[in-house]
Design a protein that fits this description.
The complex is a heterodimer of chains A (115) and B (128). With 115 residues, chain A is mostly helical. Chain A is built from four helices and no strands. The chains are: A mainly alpha (115), B mainly alpha (128). The interface between A and B is medium-sized, with 21 and 21 residues.
């Protein structure tokens, strides 16, 4: 019997799976928020802030943000791999994207926990 | 080494002359909307921050968002989000080998385009 094993770092599969898991988390959050907004109708500042002051909404939003950043990383990496041929430039874009996403993560956490 | 004459490959890849099939159109829009949202991520976080920071920033933001050019941009972003979401859900079904046949793939592409447009329209009517 010939054992055929896929070699490599498996980062392709990991990215593929990450993209789908993060997508499902974001889709669930979108549905949750649509329901919360429809039910609570937070049409003024107090109620809008009150929605984000709920601890479980805060945690759900944090999960959404983390999923979004991972999802954006895999997506942008794929776009760069497809269109940016010079490897130096591609690497620079990877680094810029990662740094931007980490900065956004910090900013998002700061916004959420200032409520 | 013998040289082998390359067969001419009749590629016709002028992007402005190709008529994209519907599933390809939905697919490229999935990518375009994704990149667009990534580029505007900072703007979206800023919106969230202004809406939550204080009563004054909230009120100022609401006045700004009421301007029609801003409304158009935000509705455009909402459409991008919804199209990306619906195209993504379609993708998950294709991953599970559901709807791979050409006819059904075309139907689901049309459904994705329609769903994104219709939900955006509903929100637009509610917001106006």
């Amino acid at each position: 019997m010939v054992r055929r094993e896929v070699i490599g770092a498996h980062y392709g599969l990991r990215g593929w799976l990450l993209q789908r898991v993060s997508a499902v988390v974001m889709a669930a959050y979108t549905l949750l928020m649509a329901v919360m907004i429809a039910v609570l109708q937070p049409g003024d500042f107090g109620r809008w802030r009150g929605l984000f002051a709920l601890p479980w909404i805060k945690v759900a939003t944090l999960l959404f943000v983390v999923s979004l950043l991972l999802h954006a990383w895999v997506g942008m990496r794929n776009v760069f791999m497809d269109y940016v041929k010079p490897s130096g430039l591609r690497f620079a874009l990877y680094v810029a994207t990662i740094l931007a996403l980490i900065a956004y993560a910090g900013w998002a956490a700061q916004i959420l926990w200032s409520v | 080494m013998p040289t082998v004459a390359l067969k001419p490959r009749y590629k016709y890849l002028n992007l402005f002359k190709i008529r994209l099939p519907l599933p390809a159109f939905v697919s490229i829009l999935h990518r375009v909307t994704g990149v667009l949202m990534f580029l505007l991520l900072g703007f979206l976080l800023w919106l969230l921050q202004q809406s939550l920071q204080s009563f004054n920033t909230y009120t100022a933001l609401r006045a700004w968002v009421a301007l029609w050019p801003v409304k158009i941009v935000l509705l455009g972003l909402l459409w991008a989000y919804l199209h990306h979401l619906f195209a993504g859900i379609r993708h998950l079904f294709l991953d599970a080998h559901v709807g791979l046949e050409l006819a059904r793939a075309r139907q689901s592409s049309a459904a994705v385009l329609a769903a994104g447009a219709i939900v955006t329209l509903i929100v637009a009517v509610l917001a106006w």
